[in-house]
Amino acid sequence: MKFGNRLKQARQDKHLTQDTVSKHMIVSRQTISSWENEKTYPDITSLIKLSEYYDISLDLLLKEDNGMKEYLKKKDLSQKILPISRLLIIVNTIISISIIFDSFKFINLGIAEPFILIIGIINSIAIIRMDNLREKIGIERNKKIKDKIRNLSIYKRLHLIDHLKNHWLIYIISLILISIFGNYILATGMGKNFDMLINIGSIISFLGISSIIMIVIILIENKKS
Q1: pTM of structure
Q2: Are 166 and 172 in contact (CB under 8 A)?
Q3: For residue 192, what pLDDT band results from cuts at 50, 70 and 90?
Q4: 3-state secondary structure the chain
Q5: Taking the CB of residue 7, how many other CB atoms lie within 10 A of it?
Q6: Mean pLDDT of all residues belonging to the chain
Q7: Axis crossing angle, helix 112-136 with helix 195-224, rounded to the nearest 10
């Protein structure tokens, strides 16, 4: 007997409806149905709660069910990856704020700026690879949000990744020109000691360089996948 059938049988043995179980588990009735039909699986916390509610051992619930065991292994691996992903995102956020503050002359990174930028690039690649790993094991981060984006008509119509692959050179050259323009404004502002021009030039230059880096990272990662 498979996990879903065993779960359904345990519920019926207790003369419980899916509605009753859903209220106890604080989930929707559709979620209970989905578990019993093996469209999705409960996490380990829900699994323990079900085991206690149905008064049935975990060993019996999971007996000879490779699908559920495989899911729990993937979930466990995903939970181990999650703190690393969060740390990388926090580091990248700090790096971005530092570079922006440096652009506005609130702080002075000096010769450390290129090294910080390199760390940011490495971090961005690591974050994308972490996401790819989660997708490969079947647990995608922010899946609902990503699915909504993929279902947008503009996304389907433009085939954004394919479009980027075919026209990457145009985008990179355009962004280089934008960065040069930003540096020109920055140099003009510094020459005239005009803070507003310095800030505008710094932002334009930063956005241009950041966009180039992101395009390169996306192209590298999609070439590997």
Answers
A1: 0.46
A2: no
A3: confident
A4: CCHHHHHHHHHHHCCCCHHHHHHHHCCCHHHHHHHHCCCCCCCHHHHHHHHHHHCCCHHHHHCCCHHHHHHHHHHHHHHHHHHHHHHHHHHHHHHHHHHHHHHCCCCCCCCHHHHHHHHHHHHHHHHHHHHHHHHHCCCCCCHHHHHHHHHCHHHHHHCHHHHHHHCHHHHHHHHHHHHHHHHHHHHHHHHHCCHHHHHHHHHHHHHHHHHHHHHHHHHHHHHHC
A5: 26
A6: 77
A7: 40
